# Entry
Amino acid sequence: MSVVTDYLEHLNDVERPILTRLRELVYEMVPDAEDVISYGVPTYRYKGKYMLAFASNKEFMSIYPGAEVIELLKSDLKPYRLSKGTISFTSENPLTDDLLRSIIQLCKEAIEHHNKK
# Structure
């Protein structure tokens, strides 16, 4: 059992399916992604580099794709609470699959671009 599976099992019945869906999309789009716990939160690494992380908090859930990805998707992220490198959302207003796919794809491309240098 992976460390992220352990994390997800401890979430409540509302948050678990939302963050499990994120995990499914990561593995669908980036089958080589590795899940680890970093700084106490589930984190995905790709080609040995940080790709994104997520967490559940008392009042909201967050995904941490980095500031560059947020800047690229800023117009699509208006309904969500943003801070540098963080997108926060609630179960009443979760990130859509299309938006999650865009975030994951941009994170993956950033690593692939960085590795070409």
Notes: The two ends are 35 Å apart (CA to CA). The chain has four helices and six strands. Residues 97-116 form the longest helix (20 residues). The chain has one domain: 3-110.
